[in-house]
Amino acid sequence: MLPNDPESKPIPPGTPMTEARIDFGFRIYWTKMATKWDMARIREMKTRVIAVTQQPDFEKNLIERRFRVEGLDEQAHSGASLLALIDVLNALETYAANNG
Protein backbone atom coordinates (compact mmCIF):
# COMPACT_ATOMS: atom_id res chain seq x y z
CA MET A 1 0.00 0.00 0.00
CA LEU A 2 1.43 3.36 -1.00
CA PRO A 3 0.59 6.56 0.82
CA ASN A 4 -2.00 8.68 -0.97
CA ASP A 5 -2.74 5.92 -3.49
CA PRO A 6 -6.51 6.06 -4.00
CA GLU A 7 -6.62 2.46 -5.30
CA SER A 8 -4.62 0.84 -2.51
CA LYS A 9 -6.47 -0.80 0.33
CA PRO A 10 -5.10 -1.97 3.66
CA ILE A 11 -4.60 -5.69 4.05
CA PRO A 12 -7.42 -6.99 6.24
CA PRO A 13 -6.50 -8.64 9.54
CA GLY A 14 -6.32 -12.40 9.25
CA THR A 15 -5.05 -12.34 5.66
CA PRO A 16 -2.76 -15.35 5.28
CA MET A 17 0.95 -14.86 4.84
CA THR A 18 1.85 -15.85 1.31
CA GLU A 19 5.31 -16.67 0.01
CA ALA A 20 5.32 -13.37 -1.88
CA ARG A 21 4.43 -11.34 1.22
CA ILE A 22 7.04 -13.12 3.32
CA ASP A 23 9.70 -12.61 0.65
CA PHE A 24 8.79 -8.92 0.39
CA GLY A 25 9.22 -8.54 4.15
CA PHE A 26 12.65 -10.19 4.02
CA ARG A 27 13.75 -7.87 1.21
CA ILE A 28 12.62 -4.78 3.11
CA TYR A 29 14.41 -5.94 6.26
CA TRP A 30 17.67 -6.76 4.47
CA THR A 31 17.59 -3.54 2.47
CA LYS A 32 17.31 -1.55 5.71
CA MET A 33 20.21 -3.50 7.22
CA ALA A 34 22.57 -3.72 4.25
CA THR A 35 22.34 -0.09 3.17
CA LYS A 36 24.27 0.69 6.38
CA TRP A 37 27.19 -1.54 5.31
CA ASP A 38 30.23 -0.49 3.31
CA MET A 39 31.01 -2.27 0.03
CA ALA A 40 33.62 -4.52 1.65
CA ARG A 41 31.05 -5.86 4.12
CA ILE A 42 28.46 -6.25 1.36
CA ARG A 43 30.88 -8.38 -0.67
CA GLU A 44 32.03 -10.41 2.34
CA MET A 45 28.50 -11.16 3.51
CA LYS A 46 27.44 -12.07 -0.02
CA THR A 47 30.30 -14.59 -0.24
CA ARG A 48 29.42 -16.09 3.14
CA VAL A 49 25.67 -16.25 2.47
CA ILE A 50 26.23 -17.89 -0.92
CA ALA A 51 28.46 -20.49 0.76
CA VAL A 52 25.63 -21.34 3.18
CA THR A 53 23.07 -21.57 0.37
CA GLN A 54 25.30 -24.01 -1.51
CA GLN A 55 25.43 -26.52 1.34
CA PRO A 56 23.67 -29.82 0.63
CA ASP A 57 21.20 -29.39 3.50
CA PHE A 58 20.11 -25.90 2.40
CA GLU A 59 16.50 -25.37 1.40
CA LYS A 60 14.35 -22.33 0.72
CA ASN A 61 12.17 -22.73 3.77
CA LEU A 62 10.04 -19.68 4.51
CA ILE A 63 9.86 -19.37 8.27
CA GLU A 64 11.99 -21.86 10.19
CA ARG A 65 15.31 -20.28 11.17
CA ARG A 66 17.94 -22.97 10.68
CA PHE A 67 20.83 -21.39 8.82
CA ARG A 68 23.59 -19.30 10.40
CA VAL A 69 26.04 -17.11 8.54
CA GLU A 70 29.30 -16.36 10.32
CA GLY A 71 29.74 -12.64 10.84
CA LEU A 72 26.23 -11.70 9.76
CA ASP A 73 24.57 -11.59 13.17
CA GLU A 74 23.85 -13.87 16.09
CA GLN A 75 20.60 -15.24 14.65
CA ALA A 76 19.71 -18.19 12.50
CA HIS A 77 17.76 -17.35 9.34
CA SER A 78 15.34 -19.12 7.05
CA GLY A 79 16.50 -20.17 3.62
CA ALA A 80 14.14 -17.72 1.96
CA SER A 81 15.57 -14.90 4.07
CA LEU A 82 19.11 -15.69 2.97
CA LEU A 83 18.12 -15.86 -0.70
CA ALA A 84 16.42 -12.48 -0.34
CA LEU A 85 19.62 -11.13 1.24
CA ILE A 86 21.66 -12.29 -1.75
CA ASP A 87 19.27 -10.46 -4.09
CA VAL A 88 19.52 -7.29 -2.00
CA LEU A 89 23.32 -7.46 -1.92
CA ASN A 90 23.44 -7.99 -5.69
CA ALA A 91 21.21 -4.95 -6.17
CA LEU A 92 23.39 -2.81 -3.89
CA GLU A 93 26.53 -3.88 -5.76
CA THR A 94 24.89 -3.05 -9.10
CA TYR A 95 23.71 0.30 -7.80
CA ALA A 96 27.19 1.18 -6.52
CA ALA A 97 28.80 0.13 -9.80
CA ASN A 98 26.40 2.26 -11.85
CA ASN A 99 26.41 5.28 -9.56
CA GLY A 100 30.05 5.27 -8.44
In short:
With 100 residues, this protein is mainly α. The protein has helices at 19-34, 39-53, 79-99. 13% of the residues are buried.
Describe the structure.
- By secondary structure, the protein is mostly helical.
- The chain has one domain.
- It has helices spanning 19-34, 39-53, 79-99.
- Helix 1 (19-34) packs across helix 3.
- The protein is flat and about 40 Å long.
Helix content: 40-55%
Low-confidence stretches: none
- Assign an overall shape: flat
Described by strand count, sense and barrel closure, the largest sheet is: none
Strand content: under 5%
Q: Give helix and strand order, one letter per element, not per position.
A: HHH
Which key terms come to mind for this protein?
mainly alpha
Give the SSE layout.
Blueprint: H1 19-34, H2 39-53, H3 79-99
Helix pairs in contact: 1-3, 2-3
